[in-house]
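Possible race condition, two jobs.
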Amino acid sequence: MPWEAWLTLTVVALCVGLLASNRYPPDVVMLGGLTLLLLAGVITPADALSGLSNEGMVTVAVLYVVVFGLQETGGTARVSQALLRRPRSLARAQLRLMAPVFVPKRVPEQHASGGDVHPGGAGLGQAA
């Protein structure tokens, strides 16, 4: 058996052992195993990313890393404290949380013409 096969079996056994121990989160264990195989040259970067359905999945994964970093550094606490301050009621707290998300989302919908929203929509407003 070639050395790549032995290394792969060792990495799989190591990952299974670490997953069974519950000492590390599963995503860290699996990403660590993938990284070991990638750095050793057993798999190519294309093979490593082929399990993801599209680039959107990679983007979401990167955003999870960014959010984790923000949480660890206290960035999310600062933003939420500045946004919420001390609301007097539940309704005010909800309004302060919804407004930054609701307002930017509604603006593009109100300003788009029918031809911009619907594919092939050129001439939607024209009389037949």
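Job #2 (started ~2 s after job #1):
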Amino acid sequence: MATRAGDESSDCSSFEDFQDQDWEDRGRRASDSSVEFVAGSDGCQSMDERAADGGEERASSPLLTTQPVAVARDHGRQPVVGGARLVADAPSPSAKSAEAKQDELPIFQERWADRESAVTDVQHWAIGINKKLVVYKKGSGGKRVVLVCPARLVKLEGAKTATIDTSVACDAQMVLLRSKAKAKAATPWFLSKGASKVDHISCGQDAGRASARVVRRLAGFAGALAADKGATKGVLQAALTADGIRMSKSAMYRAKTAVIDEDSKTYAGKFQLLQPFVDEFNEAPVNGKGEVRFDDSSRFSGLTLVFRGNCDLVMAGPQHVSFIDMAHSKSNLYRGQHFAMVGCDADNKVTVMGWGLCPIESTAEYVKHLAVMLEMEPAADGDGDLNAWLKSPDHTQFADRAKGIPMAQQMTYPSAKRMACTKHLITNARADPKVSNKFTDGMVWAIQGQMTEEGCDAAFEKLEKSSPTAATYFRNIEPDLWCLWPQVLAGRPLHGHKTNNFVESCNSWLMEARSDGPLDAADKVCAKVMSELTSRRREAKKKFDEGHTLTRFAESKYEEESIKAPLYDVQLSTDTLGYATGAQGPGAKRRTVDLANKTCSCNYWAQHKRPCRHAIAVAKKAGLIEGPAGYKSWVQMSVDEGYMMESYHKALQRASVRLVSLDELEPDGDGLPNVPVNQAGRPRKKRIRGQAEGGRPTKVYKCGKCGETGHNKRGCPNAGH
């Protein structure tokens, strides 16, 4: 009975009967060319398979070569599959040399614990030598896998699986076997040296593009995703290029999804470690305060961590200013918001005071985070009362115009001053269809930075000439919410802040944590805060040991003003009162400086807590800055104490974070993943309507060469006329 191409069995003797034959008899008949072994056939067994059943000794077998046949026929006990036979012929001396060289390859010395790992590693090895292998057959009761050159396979019409193309001369294949030897039970899979053929012949194929199953097991690819679950195409492609692999974009993202899905199996169990994590965090007094929240269904609803060391560092500094915002999570597992409140230390560096997670950005969620921050008790020495600092009338907090923030601020610390981010106001104005964009950002910044109401009105007039609608838009915003002159009148120092860029930069600083689930994100935030404190502590100690009086930031700003001080003509009225006049001319301004009260009519001294160029010019004229001793005495008198290196160094010595060992945490049995909530504005709920449905009309494009519609200049039919 003839065997059709694509069949997996024939009417020859069964696999069990054929398996029991004596190897000497099989070898004798092989030399007579009466037995043909077929690649991937389930009706016969190669010599190495037989060796795998009986031990690890490699059977001496002739080299297996592919011989094309036109018609597949039954030859008594000759199993045929896919129209191709591997015929046992007596090997030539050159074939023996090639076989010996092949056996020396490292891949033939490897062993694997499971079939998937074995197949993946073999395919990856093949790609490394610019070749490619695909799985052709899995047979022998799960004891064998045959991988062949893809050029050998063809899918016939009506067939469900591919079969061997007899017209292809290439006979490359790799046969994986599973040993039954007890000594090899841990790593039973190995490559058959006799049945495998490494060299490709006249197939014209190279490695091509790797499959998602191969790539997802590579260390470089998995490492890139471990560092950032939201890794972009460029990052992942760079990791693959390092391994010499290229693949399609769709396959790359399938591999990315597979890796993330594997992580999600343990993702749910991590929620049961959140409460133990917070408990361990709270046990270290230097850490601060942490709180994790679950709803009535034991599902995760929020997390807040307050860092005592950072809060003390901000409160010890001169800037009574904070910044607050939320940012979207970048994790494929956790969909929610990352809360952050930051401040400025004495070196004007971004300092994370509090961080947390919540499902959405709303007033209720802001209140929960802020409530935890207000509940943190002062340190044992009585310093650093965060509750009093946040509720103080001197406290100013910058934020964007998110709807949830103003109400939350009013509910938690109503006496504090709320300021809007000017940069967000400009962005919102440009996005408003009613506002004409015929204005520059500089016009708006000029309005914001005016020290007097008269100057603000003059700046508004310039804006109105360029864009009346923009002037109306900004006039409708209360000046006390974003302009500087009301703060000058109220004596509220802003230290030069106009935006909430500090917290925006913090969102970028926390990008790595935003790509993880709650537990891993919390651990990474703690680690980054600890690392940042360590770095600042070392830098401050170096500056302090070198004898610097001011912090690096305060020192650089003082130098900027000091360089410009000689440009002013100074007249002294008393030892502490003088006048500094700029360049002569109609635009020259005279500034009044009172050294005793630390004031200047330019208001820079009051706003920044550092002397301006006018004050430095008057002090030099009065002889207060003479020699190192005079400079140090003047700086200590004129600059806010919070900018002193000694106090900054002292505050950093007390600030630290103790990490929680995740490996030692025991799950408490409670806690389930949160139910993802659609974020505001995503996804679009209404499709964009076409012109026929009353939507925006389609833009008509004209050719740049002939001016006609219906084509562009690249395909212009009139280009030659």
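The longest helix spans residues 518-545.
Logs attached separately.
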